[in-house]
Design brief:
With about 260 residues, the chain is of the alpha/beta class. The protein has 10 helices and 7 strands. It has a 7-stranded mixed β-sheet with strand order 3-2-1-4-5-7-6, sandwiched between helices. Bound molecules: S-adenosylmethionine (SAM).
Length: about 260
């Protein structure tokens, strides 16, 4: 068994290590942000890691912040996540919306995942991805998604969990506009199909979050190719941590971001 596999939270060893890292990251976040709100955020992340999420503390807190920022900016649209696994990052966004005084009414959440694990990576995803891949990697369960939503007392009324491969599901969902698009799907083909199908639905000034931008080369290449092929200018990537980035969709005609 190779090291990356051993470190994956699909296995016990990875779960132990990720729990320890989560604890240290939450403590560090509290030290740097000694506020009552930070305590609540840190407590939320610790309930999600490692059972319900593979997303780091910094990236979870960033998702929380962006949902509330979308509310403050009065952006119309739903929250969409492509790559859900056991629902941790989705629940974090749900809590952010529910707890936000600036939120008018609850945004709809659309959660897309195969719930059968990652598809096989292609040449574009690099040697490490191809050598590490195993069947059932990141195999999430809809039952666990529902469980964490119930534990956080989030109503499932506004949540659409859509199981299936993105190629089959994204284009058929009755989804109009998107305020925040969280793409956490690792590979070139998966990230590209999300952008091809959903980017146009993101409102100007809306947020696109890429969990794996600096983690997997295929994710990076899919974003670069998409922006180039569609001649999209004015995208300013913001770093969240070692792996994650996000950007605000620029104005179509002006090619600039709405608010930084
Ligand atoms: C890293 S996990 C997502 C982690 C999750 N956001 C969390 O909070 O831990 C990546 C997910 O993307 C899904 N996925 C990747 N490519 C897909 C595709 N083409 N169609 C459907 N699901 C896909 C996998 O099933 C997997 O659950």
């Amino acid at each position: 068994m190779n090291l990356i596999k051993l470190l994956s939270t699909d296995f016990f060893t990875g779960q132990i290590l990720f729990s320890g890292k989560g604890l240290l990251d939450s403590l560090w976040f509290l030290v740097r942000n000694p506020r009552k709100k930070s305590l609540r955020l840190a407590a939320l992340t610790l309930q999600l890691i490692p059972r319900y999420t593979k997303v780091s503390v910094k990236r979870l807190i960033n998702l929380h912040r962006l949902v509330q920022k979308a509310n403050r900016l009065n952006l119309p649209g739903d929250i969409v996540e492509c790559g859900v696994w056991n629902g941790g990052s989705a629940a974090m966004m749900g809590v952010a919306d529910r707890d936000d005084e600036a939120s008018g009414k609850a945004r709809k959440l659309w959660l897309f995942d195969s719930f059968r694990g990652l598809p096989r990576p292609s040449n574009r995803d690099g040697k490490q991805a191809r050598e590490t891949y195993f069947q059932g990697w990141c195999h999430g369960e809809t039952g666990k998604v529902e469980r964490i939503f119930r534990r956080f007392r989030l109503s499932l009324q506004h949540v659409n969990i859509i199981p299936g491969w993105f190629d089959d599901t994204l284009g058929t969902a009755d989804l109009q506009t998107i305020a925040l698009l969280h793409i956490d799907a690792d590979w070139y083909a998966s990230v590209k199909v999300v952008l091809e199908t959903l980017y146009d639905k993101v409102v100007e000034g809306g947020f696109v979050v890429l969990d794996d931008y600096w983690r997997w080369p295929g994710c990076r290449e899919a974003v670069t190719d998409y922006l180039k092929e569609h001649q999209i200018q004015g995208v300013v990537l913001k770093q969240v941590d070692l792996h994650g980035v996000y950007f605000q969709k620029p104005h179509r005609c002006r090619g600039e971001t709405v608010d930084s």
